[in-house]
Amino acid sequence: MFGSGEHLLCSAIPNMLAVEEWMPLDRLAAAHSGRTPRRNRQAEPSGSPNTGQDTRARPGGRWRFWGAAYALLILLTGTNLPTPLYRGYEAQFGFSPLVVTMIFAAYVVALIPSLLVAGPLSDAIGRRKVLLPAVALAALGAVVFALAAGTEWLFAARILQGLALGAASGPLTASLAELEPAGNRRKAALVSTVASVGGLGLGPVLAGLLAQYAPAPYVMPFVVEIVLLVPAVVVITALPATRPAARWRPRRPEVPATMRGAFATSGTASFLAFAVIGLFLTLIPTYVTSLSGSKNLLLGGAAVALMLVCSVLAQLVAYGRPARTLELIGLPLLATGLVLLALAGGVSSLTLLLVATVVAGGGQGLVFLGGLTAVSQAAAADRHAEVLSSFYVIVYLGVGLPVIGVGFLATVAGLLAAVQYFAGVVALLCLTVLIVLARVRHHNPITPSSAPFDTADD
Q: 3-state SS string over the chain?
């Protein structure tokens, strides 16, 4: 979620169990024992579009399901509202592109520990008790942005946003899979990724539109965010109560041994995909205005949104495809988009930049959808939110860390050269991961560790 990636980039594809009151007794027993019911493993062939689907209807699930998706969308939108405003903040408060990346990094630094604590905590004490404070932090972050009177205010606001999204990402994506009315985990996966990436794209467009054409350009976007958070509070309050699954204790994040291979490969691919997101969310609006010669705030936000719209469209088109196939298609597209991005700066072509944005966006969407699906399918049912939160750590590190290096480089070599170097290095890394995935695909297929009603999809 990512902004960030928000995963960054938030964001996210959970394959969670239904809450216990909706689960048949045989499946409930299997969930606690860590076994997958035999008849379900036989019923769905690998790669079936119905993989991970529980056909029991869930009472009142439809509006709660879409309400949870709305809450995720708005939280991600809010964290990305500052994207087109940074150029104005630079002029107003007198800081460099490096400070922009440091502000962004402060968000990630706050987000990661929040992710690691909130995921397991929500598994133990229930979703609502974690999500309501998260929304309150998001609203407080918006207030601080609206009242910002100096650079330190921006750092404080981004830290609050990072804590909010970190606390909400895992529980909300878990809730989506729990609340999907037919128990269709593929649909829950698609909705969660579209909501996550959609929020990344909606935030810059909404803020750019309001900042360019509405009064109080650095206040109005955050007032609108606070208003949009009110229905999210209503939805979260109405989420079904769940009994604590276990007593929560702080512990070091850990990935189960049975899924470490899938986590490593998919985590690396998603790290690279969200490194590109981080670049677009922080420096590309300035890059676009430099190439176009226009100071219109909406233009920079629209370039970010274009990439993310293409990401969403790619996910919709690819819905139901095997996870590894999505990654194997997405990585070369992402690399191609980055090469075109570097060339666009070299020849000062805004048209080529837009083409690069479309190609990179499509590749990013496929890599994100494939990577999170692979990890979600491999995760044990009783540790699902914990694994998802750990995966988000990788995603948001991708959003935050590389762009700091780009910011440092931009102060020395200039923005154009920094973006070109970044694009070239990440493109090479994408191709390296592609080769690794292609080699291990047939030797190390993804298998679910103990998640009921799921089978590997390749």
A: CCCCCCCCCCCCCCCCCCCHHHCCHHHHHHHHHCCCCHHHHHHCCCCCCCCCECCCCCCCHHHHHHHHHHHHHHHHHHHCCCHHHHHHHHHHHCCCHHHHHHHHHHHHHHHHHHHHHHHHHHHHHCCHHHHHHHHHHHHHHHHHHHCCCCHHHHHHHHHHHHHHHHHHHHHHHHHHHHHCCCCEHHHHHHHHHHHHHHHHHHHHHHHHHHHHHCCCCCCHHHHHHHHHHHHHHHHHHCCCCCCCCCCCCCCCCCCCHHHHHHHHHHHHHHHHHHHHHHHHHHCHHHHHHHHHCCCCHHHHHHHHHHHHHHHHHHHHHHCCCCHHHHHHHHHHHHHHHHHHHHHHHHHCCHHHHHHHHHHHHHHHHHHHHHHHHHHHHHCCHHHHHHHHHHHHHHHHHHHHHHHHHHHHHHHHHCHHHHHHHHHHHHHHHHHHHHHHHHHHCCCCCCCCCCCCCCCCCC
Q: What is the mean pLDDT of residues 20-36?
A: 34
Examine the pLDDT at 443 and tell me if it is beyond 80. no
**Residue with more model confidence, 309 or 58:** 309
Q: What is the pLDDT of residues 388-432, one digit of tens each?
A: 777 878 887 887 778 788 888 888 888 788 888 999 999 999 999
**pLDDT tens per residue across span 9-24:** 333 333 332 222 223 3
Better pLDDT: 54 or 305: 305
Q: What rounded mean pLDDT belongs to the chain?
A: 77
> What is the per-residue pLDDT for 451?
36
Stated pTM of the model: 0.70
CA atoms of 343 and 364, how far apart (whole Å): 19
Residue 401: CB atoms within 10 A of its CB come to: 15
